[in-house]
Amino acid sequence: xxxxxxxxxxxxxxxxxxxxSSASVAVRFDGVFREYPHKTGQVSALDGVSLDVPRGSIFGxxxxxxxGKSTLVRMVNGLDRPTGGRVLLEGTxxxxxxxxxxxxxxxxxxxxxxxxxxxxxxxxxxxVARPLIxxxxxxxxxxxxxxxxLEFVGLADKGDRRPGELSGGQKQRVGIARAIVxxxxxxxxxxxxxxxxxxxxxxxxxxxxxxxATYGTTIFVVTHEMDVIKDLCHExxxxxxGRIVEHGTVLDVFVRPxxxxxxxxxxxxVPHTIPARVLKHVGDGDLWRLRLIDDxxxxxxxxxxxxxxxxxxxxxxxxMAEIQQHTVGHMIIRVDGPADRVAAAWTWLESNVASIEKxxxx
Amino acid sequence: xxxxxxxxxxxxxxxxxxxxSSASVAVRFDGVFREYPHKTGQVSALDGVSLDVPRGSIFGxxxxxxxGKSTLVRMVNGLDRPTGGRVLLEGTxxxxxxxxxxxxxxxxxxxxxxxxxxxxxxxxxxxVARPLIxxxxxxxxxxxxxxxxLEFVGLADKGDRRPGELSGGQKQRVGIARAIVxxxxxxxxxxxxxxxxxxxxxxxxxxxxxxxATYGTTIFVVTHEMDVIKDLCHExxxxxxGRIVEHGTVLDVFVRPxxxxxxxxxxxxVPHTIPARVLKHVGDGDLWRLRLIDDxxxxxxxxxxxxxxxxxxxxxxxxMAEIQQHTVGHMIIRVDGPADRVAAAWTWLESNVASIEKxxxx
Amino acid sequence: xxxxxxxxxxxxxxFKELGVTFYMLGVSLFFGAILGVIIGVIVVVxxxxxxxANRVVYTVLDVFINIxxxxPFIILLVAIIPFTRLLVGTSIGPAAAIVPLTxxxxxxxxxxxxxxxxxxxxxxxxxxxxxxxxxLQIFTRFLLPEARGSxxxxxxxxxxxxxxxxxMAGTVGAGGIGDLAISYGYQRFDxxxxxxxxxxxxxxxxxxxxxGSRLARRARRR
Amino acid sequence: xxxxxxxxxxxxxxFKELGVTFYMLGVSLFFGAILGVIIGVIVVVxxxxxxxANRVVYTVLDVFINIxxxxPFIILLVAIIPFTRLLVGTSIGPAAAIVPLTxxxxxxxxxxxxxxxxxxxxxxxxxxxxxxxxxLQIFTRFLLPEARGSxxxxxxxxxxxxxxxxxMAGTVGAGGIGDLAISYGYQRFDxxxxxxxxxxxxxxxxxxxxxGSRLARRARRR
Amino acid sequence: GETSDxxxxxxxxxxxxxxxxxxxxxxxxxxxxxILPILEEDGYxxxxxxxxxxxxxxxALNSGExxxxxxxxxxxMDSINVQEGYTNVSLVQVPGPPMALFGGKxxxxxxxxxxxxxxxxxxxxxxYRAFQVLVDAGWIELSDTIDPxxxxxxxxxxxxxNLQFVTLENAQQVPALQDVDxxxxxxxxxxxxxxxxxxxLLLEDLTDEFSVIVAVDEKNVDSDWAKAIKAAYESPEFAxxxxxxxxxxxxxxxxxxxS
Lengths: 362, 362, 222, 222, 259
Ligand SMILES: Nc1ncnc2c1ncn2[C@@H]1O[C@H](COP(=O)(O)OP(=O)(O)OP(=O)(O)O)[C@@H](O)[C@H]1O
Ligand SMILES: Nc1ncnc2c1ncn2[C@@H]1O[C@H](COP(=O)(O)OP(=O)(O)OP(=O)(O)O)[C@@H](O)[C@H]1O
Ligand SMILES: [Mg+2]
Ligand SMILES: [Mg+2]
Known about the structure:
The complex is a heteropentamer, with two copies of chain A, two copies of chain C and one copy of chain E.
Chain A: E1 25-36, E2 43-54, E3 58-63, H1 69-76, E4 84-89, E5 92-93, H2 99-107, E6 109-112, H3 124-134, H4 139-152, H5 168-180, E7 186-190, H6 198-215, E8 218-223, H7 226-232, E9 235-240, E10 243-249, H8 250-255, H9 260-267, H10 276-279, E11 286-293, H11 295-298, H12 301-309, E12 312-323, E13 326-336, H13 339-350, E14 355-358
Parallel strand pairs in A: 3-8, 3-9, 6-7, 7-8
Antiparallel strand pairs in A: 1-2, 1-4, 4-5, 9-10, 11-13, 11-14, 12-13
Chain C: H1 11-46, H2 55-70, H3 73-79, H4 81-88, H5 94-118, H6 122-130, H7 135-168, H8 177-186, H9 191-220
Helix pairs in contact in C: 1-2, 1-5, 1-7, 1-8, 2-5, 4-5, 5-7, 6-7, 7-8, 7-9, 8-9
Chain E: E1 17-22, H1 26-41, E2 45-50, H2 54-62, E3 68-73, H3 74-84, E4 88-93, E5 100-103, E6 117-121, H4 124-136, E7 141-142, E8 156-158, E9 164-168, E10 182-185, H5 187-192, E11 202-203, E12 212-217, H6 224-234, H7 236-244
Parallel strand pairs in E: 1-2, 1-3, 6-9, 6-10
Antiparallel strand pairs in E: 3-12, 4-12, 5-10, 5-11, 7-8
Helix pairs in contact in E: 1-6, 1-7
The complex binds adenosine-5'-triphosphate (2 copies) and magnesium ion (2 copies).
Protein name (chains C, D): Methionine ABC transporter permease
Transmembrane segments (chains C, D): 20-44, 56-81, 87-109, 151-172, 192-212
Domain ABC transmembrane type-1 (chains C, D): 18-211
């Protein structure tokens, strides 16, 4: 059921170069299981996950609370081990490495934790500098670099504080700074922005994008916020109950979600349900639901229908979203007029929009 | 600068009954300051906050990371004390109460913590039952009630687990369950949904709304997610740097944000910036930006312009949002045609939409 | 016994003294733990910034703990003889040993309890306060369960210290395994007695530690 | 005393013995702390589920700690005389007292260190591991700073225990304030010597506790 | 008589259950093997209580918690009586070993040299005795005011060899032997520690005042049970027991037992 980029809609897929070829895979999940023993039988946090994260891509995983996202991301840097299957980081099975090898592999990654996990007794600056200190960087240099990164995340003036003196969002940004201070090859984000307000989120997303573009860092993002996927990711996988239920380019999943759960997430950005307000109008005439991509969005569709096809058009619902470099629109219109003109309008729309369907009472 | 509901836009303000009269104020902040001593001078987390939270209302406070939201909410149940000013809970200054009085007051509140603060060594059920146990409720009854509330928050099957065996979002829901188990008069939520996926968020919001409607519980919500404000709150205050910079009914603030910061938050739901895609068209003709409320949204505006005023209309951008019981729409259209017709169209629109303005390059 | 006998102690004597050790250990641990936990809790809640911050009570208790812990056990034992006599009617024998043992262990347990309670994350106390928990409830319903693991380890540590102290209780004719080790093994150079008693002590301590660690691990399980 | 002299001890003697106490305390604390921390860390990392889980090392160390802690100090002192002689060339005097003092305090500190380290939230270790920290780095760069407050309190507790143990070191002719208290205050009924020495001990312990608490509070400040 | 005890309620004349305190060591062994059988024959039952300390055992005696103790010489007992206001008295003297000066690193008395180390007991009365042995050896002189109850190295007035005194707990003196030049060890620890009194370089001239005694409270001296104890220690059976056990070789015998 996971789809490959091959059948994705628009021409230029924004997926990272060379995706799909095993050589360019940064992280490969190969039939991964994770079971927890529990009084009442086993709990399956991961239930046979197979997934390739292309090198240099920004890859998002979305799913409901408890779907297994944190469990999945913790496999990538060996914090957790599969009870079945393999996780390959740059082609290496982490479980096969000796301790020193595992540590070397971990040093190529950076991780932002859902619950921050900062040292409470150490200044913000020293928290951020810590990974460098581990590498033997001189304290001065490590601190200087930490200050640089703190500036990046908008905490230039908070270096001297202890985490306990920061707000929730500030703590999260310290965690982000710590994760990127080493310029990791793979950056793992577990809800990296869930404690942040939208404008800080936007900044952080900008920052992550810049890191990806500048250093080719593979970013593996686990989140419950579709906005993060929309603005940041190239590919997205949808998780449910420990399984990947859908997978494709972000645009693809947004425009044509295949599963109900994907549709629900997409709906938080581009509503998929028909607002109650609109439903009141069902029966007044034909209600059509259109999905538009890119130029279709800015072309004068309504104008054309009215002037060229002589039908009356009322836009009952419309919204638009920028997804990656694409605009995706969604409209529900009521079309009135003589049957033949309405039919002609339908035919014209069919070949001029991404998708069109009649709205019927649910 | 804070506005009272009086000048809010549409007829029926969804503000709780009797708002404004001091008798019906659940929480009053009266010139509240909170300063932290710090090496580099004082840090002001709250800088003179005055605010009335009407009894029975759902009151939201939004602001960037570090704005002082958590500090504010912690004043309400006496977890923190103002260094200046007073906080009145149901008319009583918490700082004036003897310990027993303070505890009695605290028992009328429930609090959802940003960082959950669950007992790690105790089952989920017992975490939720704990407030009742404090009240001397028999263990059996307390547990039964806890199970009821766990069911509410979608964790009916997790009662036996320990918090360490739950995902982030599941933990947050345990925190919510614990806060509402006593049917508090005032429910304090510090980022109650920030670790939750959209559909769980929707459920929780539904739940909070139900609690508010059924028991008349005053809910004081602190969040960085505008969606929560939009879907849940009656009134909203916008915080920045320890100050309230804007305050009004939610609809009011959404339709006519007064400050840049409010606009930025509103923009995450109803975009306030003009998409780059649209800006490319500036200069092609007149670009008009319309804001529509309720019936204006479903009336055939574009059709009217085309057919009655004989102008060509291209919709460059459109989106809609449900805010409280109202629909708010936002459109950017290009209008072409003879100057007089265009002018007539403008005039007609002026009296038929909430607001209209010309778009110029920023 | 005399002459060329292999050891100076008899099996009867050994088991009797073993019983005495358990008796002294059990009773003084029981009272010491109760007093110690009370002391620890009071110190924690009355400390500056605590739930019932009270400079005077805190300072008095803190100093009291230090005084008791400063005085060498033998001196403490003599110093409180009048008190011991008042309490148990005699100043010699196992019952009398229990008094100084309890008096010396309680402040020690108090200190360990204090250290454990201070390790519970501040947020837990906050959550408790937000629910209007009384200071006693904060302790019993929140701090105690969360600190249980480390409290058990602290009590384990204290119990083992107590085993050591019971050996000194020989001074007041209390007997016990530790006294056997000293009286026979040490003072009479009876190698076999030394071996048997020390091995017994090791087994006792090892058992206490194993049980303590296991209970702590279970309590700590999250 | 006899001739009606007020006390048996002279100021010179007092200050000399005070010096001896500090010497024994300082040296045995120094080595005991180093060994204790090493022991504590090894126990923590080799425990089941630890960073370098190793059943054998863990069990051996765990049992070793318990053995040393089981044996009454006076017996330990005698039992390790050959070892003491090997190390410092004699079995008597302050230098010789330091050996059993260190041997007895190190496992105790080890146990306290273990308890402290186990209190550090698991997430910190995870964060450290995610950065590829070695077990040593996990300890020095993560656990140590986070546990610093409780480690200091543990060391404080141990140091105070050590003060008590130095009193017993009098048995090997080591002297010190505690020995003065026992030999003169207790055995020779010199009330003044008793008072002076016990007050001195209380002051020493109180000072250690105050300094320890203050350092811990500072380290704990978040 | 008028000193007999009537505060215990039960008639003291018929008292047959005795409680006797000891410090663990030869005196207790000697009592159990040589005296106890005689007392039992006389119809007494005895409970022995071990103390590892000399102060508390006298307090217990004075307060009636025990009836007698057998662990000290009268000098020590007297000193504690004075200190604590006790009324304990000596009932009968028992056989006991003398203090003995052993060579540790040095092999003979003649090897003594400047700065030689000498271990002595840390308890004042035994330290006093040890000093007397050193006086006998001609190594030191003591102050006129020396008091067995408070004797300390400060009482040494002349110390031509500049001897370094190492004060040790009695039992420690045996294992410490090889670490000092000379070691003056209390007799029962010599015996218990497996050393031979006959190997000593110099033995104490044990005077009666330093012989171990059975102590009882003054008011009980004339009780039947006290008399029975006294009689047992002076009996021929006991003399026979001492004579026939080689472990008591070198013991100082009370006049009553000297044959
Ligand atoms: N130690 C454990 N024992 C038992 N079950 C566990 C344990 N840890 C996690 N789980 C379960 O595994 C599932 C996946 O957890 P995970 O933390 O990966 O979810 P998530 O997708 O990250 O959720 P969230 O968005 O709420 O953080 C959850 O149902 C959780 O209850
Ligand atoms: N103990 C403290 N010492 C110094 N400054 C503090 C302390 N606690 C909080 N602050 C500061 O007070 C300000 C307000 O903090 P607060 O936690 O109320 O923010 P917030 O609005 O809840 O942010 P977030 O959305 O990130 O949780 C922040 O700038 C924070 O750094
Ligand atoms: Mg998670
Ligand atoms: Mg906050």
